[in-house]
Amino acid sequence: MTRRQLKLGAVLLGVGGPGQHRTWLDPEIPGDASVDIRWYIARAQEAEAARFDHVFIVDSQFITPDSPHHYLNRLEPLTLLSAVAVHTNHIGLVGTLTTSYNDPFNVARRLASLDVISGGRAGWNVVATGDGGTAGNYGRAEHYDYTTRYGRAYEHVRVVQGLWDSYEDDAFPRDRDSGVFFDPSRQHALGHVGEHFSVVGPLNLQRSPQGQPVIFQAGDSDEGRDLGAGIAEAIFTHAQTIEQGQAFARDIRARAAAKGRDPDNVLIVPGISLVLADTDEAAREKERRLLGGKDFDRALKELGRPFGWHDFTRYDLDAPFPELGDLGDRSFRTQADRIKKLARENRFTLRQVVRHLLEERRSPFVGSPRTVADEIQRWWEAGAFDGVNVTVNAPSEFARFTEGVLPILRERGVVRSDYESTTLRGNLGLPIPENVHTAARRLASVS
Questions:
Q1: Sign of the torsion formed by the C-alpha atoms of 145, 149, 150 and 154
Q2: Which residues form the Luciferase-like domain (predicted)?
Q3: CA-to-CA distance for 402 and 408, rounded, in angstroms?
Q4: Cβ atoms of residues 157 and 126 within 8 Å
Q5: pLDDT per position in the chain (447 positions), as tens?
Q6: Domain extents for the chain?
Q7: CATH assignment of 7-278+362-438?
Q8: Is residue 146 annotated as involved in ligand binding?
Q9: How many other CB atoms are there within 10 angstroms of residue 358's CB atom?
Q10: Is 421 annotated as a binding residue?
């Protein structure tokens, strides 16, 4: 297996996520794409035909009337992916579940079920919820602060992983001749008592062919990076330049090594936007149309999300950006602080901040298939990422990538020609984690 090949993920966003204000108007995209399981199955099958490693389902559990169109009306990730699982054979199935508003036992059981259903293709995108309004949907008067959110997230993941080791691989002999269905010595209660959770266990489900679902994680704050370095096997991020990507990868791997982990077992897989056309000139013109088609008023409303959906429409657009104090500290703090710093250092008005953020969405991956293939290869060879997550909306635009860019990268050996495994771990080149109880018995037998 060649580990150093570009990994591929497809982010399925239906009628459009943040900044995709007019995506839903495309005649190729059904108006109900975000809740149409047939749409997801078709996109997953297209990604599988192109030998993608995984499809990626983002999620959150709080909305306002100003939320992106896809967020307003979408399916729960693991329910969705379980349906996709039975219509695909190789592609990984990565779903977002928050550690802030879920209990570990329930998460462990749902993800393990997806892993068994799919034959070892499940992945968990771990998030510590940023949308503060989610608290009200779970009976809390106030959202968790940053320290609590990330402390809870780390303990949550460790408890889930402990539950996934409830059964050793040989716990169920199912031997009809001897009449032995189950070996109780291979079942293990967890007995966890921690700061945030108390879980007895064991989990009532066997391990899958890949041992445990693959842990993905997204978060760029210092706490988020530290969490990713501690628990993640693949990290979903964003970078505007090669240098930013290189710096992020170095930082994460240094943190992982400091925690005693093998840094080579942490993949950096950012989300990227593609603008493809037959020529570079046509692609740049296409990008200009896309940027010009963004809705300023909707972008102004979406600006409120990092600040707990603060209402920016009440301010004078041409006055200095408002003083917000600690607003955003219990929401998407890193993003909120970056916007405050941008406004402060450039003395921007509110209008200029919104315009800048709209322009900032320009992609480095704009051009003909060969130009985009060259740029992806340049970033990959420079160590700015190990793979990419491509946003999927209109099928024809996705096909420009799979039929135009990927053949070039395959010819160069950057992307594999076929699947190497039936599991997500196998295709990502990640090791199967040994059951901790099996490992303890093995070590005891040689000591």
A1: positive
A2: 35-384
A3: 10
A4: yes
A5: 344 799 999 999 999 998 888 899 999 999 999 999 999 999 999 999 999 999 999 999 999 998 999 999 999 999 999 999 999 999 999 999 999 999 999 999 999 999 999 999 999 999 999 888 999 999 999 999 989 999 999 999 999 999 999 999 999 999 999 999 999 999 999 999 999 999 999 999 999 999 999 999 987 888 999 999 999 999 999 888 999 999 999 999 999 999 999 999 999 999 999 999 999 999 999 988 887 767 888 889 989 888 988 999 999 999 999 999 988 888 788 888 989 999 999 999 999 999 888 877 678 999 999 999 999 999 999 999 999 999 999 999 999 999 999 999 999 999 999 999 999 999 999 999 999 999 999 999 887
A6: 7-278+362-438, 295-360
A7: 3.20.20.30
A8: no
A9: 18
A10: no
Which 8-state DSSP code applies to residue 216? Answer: E
Rg (CA), the chain: 23
What one-letter code names the amino acid at 414?
Answer: V
Residue 163 near residue 199, CB atoms below 8 Å: yes
pTM (predicted TM-score): 0.91
- The tokens for 224 are 């988020």
Find where tokens 């779970």 sit: 138
Determine if residue 221 is labeled as part of a ligand binding site: yes
Token representation of residue 45: 């099958």
